[in-house]
Amino acid sequence: MNSQGSFSDKKVLLIDIGGTNIRTATAEIGSNEINNASKQNLDSLDSFDEIIQNLLSKDQNIKHIVFSVAGPKLHQSITMTNRNFEINEKTILKKFFVDSCHILNDWESIGHGLSLFDTKEMSFINKCDGFNQTSLVIGPGTGLGAAQVIEDKIVLPTEIGNSSLTLPKLFEDFEPAAIENFNIIESIISGGGLKQIYKIFSSEEKSSEEIVSSFSDDEFSQKAINFFLNSFSQILSELALAYMPGNGVFIAGGLMRSMHQFIDNDIFMKNFLMNRKSMHAKILSQMPIAIINQEMTCLHGSLNFFNKISEKHK
Length: 314
Known about the structure:
Hexokinase, domain 1; six-stranded mixed sheet; five-stranded mixed sheet; 11 helices
């Protein structure tokens, strides 16, 4: 943060660089409302500096920036997982006339926003009281992102999507040649994973959006989505035992919002508890599981993160 940095009567620019799109918005510091929200294709990263400068030029009261970026954060810098792009806090401060810059992993950002999302507006797969103050936010999109949230204060982003946990048994009924590309979790549990699963069943290609929209009249879409959801519930069970999110597992992202209509809660929970010892099944059954219906979760989370900082500097 620059020494002249101030939070009073200023605005913050929120920028979410995801695996497919860039979303931007502005907000009054201390407010929970985001303004001027917009979205553009990720190809616009080729004009990244120009985009940032144009956004800053539109409002002279913008003196702070918070980025949420799809990639692991190391030393205040993020290199994107699925694209050749790197962003660094110090570089941003040198290039642009702002008082502060903060860079968050995208799921770190969502974790900071968890307390903002009203549980009354969530869609629950398993509704119960829970048993501790640890949560897991997770969601398949271009990849698979997740973060552990402890007491709504500490947010620990993970790279769990790039592990190979439980993969072999999910595909035990498939021919080896059909599954050679499924070597990490997000190669199954992601939009791209859904496409590959559909291709195994149908020998044809469809986008994840087309698969979801054709569920009612395409048997292969039904098979692919059911396999995806069954796999997700079993993988989620492994993660639940690893992170012990007694406060709840909260699923975010457009892909799962669109597939919520196909989830049979009883089947999902049966797979979630499958092959567990009675003691562990009892623990897992007491974890709330819900889909967050809120859109632009990264932008809201980044704003909440920044508001926490601004409170400390008043």
